[in-house]
Amino acid sequence: MILDGHIHIDDGPEDREDFARRLRKAEVDGGILLSPAPTCFAGAIHTASPRERLEKVLLWCEAGPNLYPFYWIDPTETDALKQVDLAVSKGVAGFKVICSTHDPGDPRALRTYQAIAETGRPILFHSGILWDGKPSSPYNRPANFEALLDVKGLRFALAHISWPWTDECIAVYGKFQAAMRRHEDLNVEMFIDTTPGTPPIYRRDALTRLFTVGYDVARNVFFGSDNHANQYNSDYARTWIERDHAILTEIGVDETTMNNVFGENLKRFVENRQP
Q: What number is the average pLDDT over the span 119-133?
């Protein structure tokens, strides 16, 4: 099974049958679908309400099995906690956050993350340089996410291996892993989403470091393409799948870990399966 952990929904055609065909062409069996962005996010061209954005991602997930709806939330909005309740009541599998206007440790955001953690849903964060046309990338340095150590029960992923700060991302993962082992009451688990991010010239180096650093990453890394449901590019997805598979094979990643990276780890991230 191959799952794509990073598929955006944009304004545009809503042909779910075509989307399902394109997934099959890419030999992808499902993945995470991210709702349209909140209006506060730079580049958001719509004014849809939270309910409308939520309904759209749920509708797209009717395209086939193994599709997980994630609601994109601005955790600093005054009604963020109400949005969490609404999204959970409608059956979302998780939440998406981009810290484009605030630090990950902003007290307003931490309150929202705690509410999400208490529902058992995970959060997929953007991490790394942000192509939004403004100086917001400092909010998305992976070390800033150390603030999440204070969110009890949180399960989260940093996307794009935090490119160009991939070494920093790996170090932060090591910190969270060590913290969980040393403090039994600290129940915060970090995953790494390998969605590009990393241009092909950097890909081999980033994956080699991630899988040979010596940390236990076999159950906490999953693949994504950063594709778009409205026009899912099957060839693009296959190119990245084949590239990553070749790199992981060359560096000696075993078949079980390979299967985890391309499918099982994402299911564990979403479904809260124990390692």
A: 93
Which amino acid type is present at position 236? Y
Check: CB of residue 26 under 8 Å from CB of residue 237.
Answer: yes
CA 243-18-196 angle, to 5 degrees, is 30
Task: Please state, in angstroms and rounded to a whole number, the distance separating the CA atoms of residues 47 and 155.
Answer: 30
Residue 11, classed as helix, strand or coil, is: coil
The CA-based diameter of the chain, rounded to the nearest angstrom, is 49
58 SS3 class: helix
pTM to 2 decimal places: 0.96
The pLDDT score that the predictor gives to residue 46 is 57
The C-alpha angle 26, 6, 156, rounded to 5 degrees, equals: 140
CA of 22: how far to CAs of 15, 28, 36, 102, 137, in Å?
11, 9, 20, 36, 32
Q: Which fold has domain 4-271?
A: TIM Barrel (3.20.20)
Which residue type is seen at 67? Answer: L
Per domain, the residue ranges of the chain are: 4-271
Give the integer Cα–Cα distance in Å for 70 and 96.
6
Question: What is d(CA 268, CA 261) in angstroms, rounded to the nearest whole number?
Answer: 11
Residue 95 sits at φ, ψ, to 5 deg, of -130, 155
Please calculate the CA angle 43-46-49 and round it to the nearest 5 degrees.
125
Per-residue pLDDT of 207-241, as tens digits, reads 999 999 999 999 999 999 999 999 999 999 999 99
CA distance 161 to 142: 9
Instruction: Give pLDDT tens digits for 59-88.
Output: 999 988 999 999 999 999 999 999 999 999
